[in-house]
Design goal:
binds S-adenosyl-L-homocysteine; DNA polymerase, domain 1; nine-stranded mixed β-sheet; 406 residues; 10 helices; two-stranded parallel sheet; TIM Barrel; binds iron/sulfur cluster
């Protein structure tokens, strides 16, 4: 039966479809892509591992810095490109390692400057990343995917309809960022070496479900020997995997965003199945004990769904729930896809909700719908036709040139 989640007035609705169940254990970090022939994935190595690899090849230490820089500051997509490495070293690297970052399959530019990238992994899967420039604020943000599909089954989210296909490796996550940086330099004409200033893990997938690979990718992204992003400019968003929020607090130095989306367990259970495992009380307790650096706040994303979670009463409950947590709320009027049955609330209701939260002293911007004309706005990412129940493409990658074969 469809759970009956109601709100005030004549816009009262019930949820349009049954929530999906979690398809995997959200605490288990499963395998990502591994090269089939036993070679190492060079893009996934951290600096110390590159250093050891170079030493084990009998090369001098400065070669490690050179190689790491080719990979993570110059975004090389093949060993061949590394023109100042001796040919013999390039050959040894190609014997031992694979360099096969995702390739750009398609770029869709939006009239508002956003760009949606469809990227193809070496085993023929697709993920999307969205570039969101805000030149006035000096910010060029990439919305990054962490998995192919998502296991969390949120009823309003298009990515959920793909189911969970697989985790992205650290190298694939890095490859996403690197390919976009390179495209911005080569196609858009922005100045290098790193046009992107900010990263938000708000693309396809639940980043904390892919904790090990996320952590490894972040380590390189924040490394001065690599792209050197500032930890203040990197945000990881989660649907609420409580033990992993605690772990993120201990092990990751980035900003945290929580997709809250409801103010009662009844509504949140129906929208986000993860809530049945860790409810609002457990989630907000994890937020309260999350170690925040001076001046930092937790961002709460709140997708406004017409007649479901957008009442004035919800806004007041939200304020009560966030008491004691240094927070900022991003209000996101639902981006309609036509597939889920949910609707965007009328503008007056969005404004009423915003004003209540704002009056309580919590910053609550209504997020602009960037990239809507290219279906690149929040929650619109899904590359259908690659559900895990379909027969998987064979990982036929593994050429050092990174061209892939699958
Ligand atoms: N899985 C993580 C990271 C993805 S973020 C998470 O859920 O936090 C994707 C964000 O888009 C989430 O905050 C989600 O609530 C929101 N979202 C999903 N579908 C949406 C839609 N159709 N319109 C607006 N926001 C949506
Ligand atoms: Fe996954 Fe986030 Fe979409 Fe939920 S909202 S299905 S956690 S991507």
């Amino acid at each position: 039966m469809t759970p009956d989640v109601t709100a005030s007035g004549d816009r009262e609705r019930s949820l349009p479809r049954e929530p999906l169940e979690l398809t995997v254990d959200p605490e288990a970090s499963g395998p990502a892509l591994r090269p089939a022939d036993g070679r190492g994935d060079i893009l996934s190595l951290d600096f110390d591992e590159v250093d050891s690899a170079i030493a084990s090849l009998g090369e001098r230490p400065f070669r490690a810095r050179q190689l790491f820089s080719w990979l993570h500051k110059r975004y090389a997509a093949s060993v061949e490109e590394m023109s100042d490495l001796p040919r013999a070293l390039r050959e040894k690297l190609a014997e031992r390692f694979v360099l096969a970052p995702p390739e750009i399959d398609l770029v869709q530019p939006s009239s508002d400057g956003a760009r949606k990238y469809k990227l193809r992994t070496a085993d023929g899967r697709f993920v999307e990343a969205v570039y969101l420039p805000d030149e006035a604020a000096g910010r060029r943000t990439l919305c990054v995917s962490s998995q192919v599909g998502c296991a969390m089954g949120c009823t309003f989210c298009l990515t959920a309809t793909m189911g969970f296909v697989r985790h992205l490796s650290a190298g694939e996550i890095l490859g996403e960022v690197h390919r976009v940086n390179r495209d911005l330099i080569e196609t858009v004409g922005l100045a290098g070496p790193r046009p992107l200033t900010n990263l938000v893990f708000m693309g396809m997938g639940e980043p904390l479900h892919n904790f090990e690979n996320l952590k490894r990718a972040l380590q390189t992204l924040l490394s001065p020997a690599g792209p050197n992003f500032s930890s203040r400019h990197v945000t990881v968003s989660t649907s609420g995997l409580v033990p992993l929020i605690d772990r993120a607090g201990r092990e990751l130095d980035v900003k945290l965003a929580i997709s809250l989306n409801a103010t009662t367990d009844e509504t949140r259970d129906a929208l986000m199945p993860i809530n049945r495992k860790w409810n609002l009380e457990a989630l907000l307790a994890a937020c309260r004990r999350f170690p925040l650096k001076q001046g930092r706040r937790i961002t709460f994303e709140y997708v406004l769904l017409d007649g479901i979670n957008d009442s004035d009463e919800d806004a007041r409950r939200l304020v009560r729930l966030l008491k004691g947590i240094p927070s900022k709320v991003n209000l996101i009027p639902y981006n309609e896809s036509g597939q889920t049955g949910f609707r965007e609330p009328p503008a007056a209701q969005v404004e009423s909700f915003r004003a209540i939260v704002d009056q309580a002293g919590i910053t609550a911007p209504v997020r602009k719908n960037r990239g809507r004309d290219i279906s690149a706005a929040c929650g619109q990412l899904a590359v259908l036709g690659q559900h895990r129940r379909r027969p998987a493409a064979q990982p036929g990658l593994v050429t050092p040139s990174g061209t892939g074969a699958g």
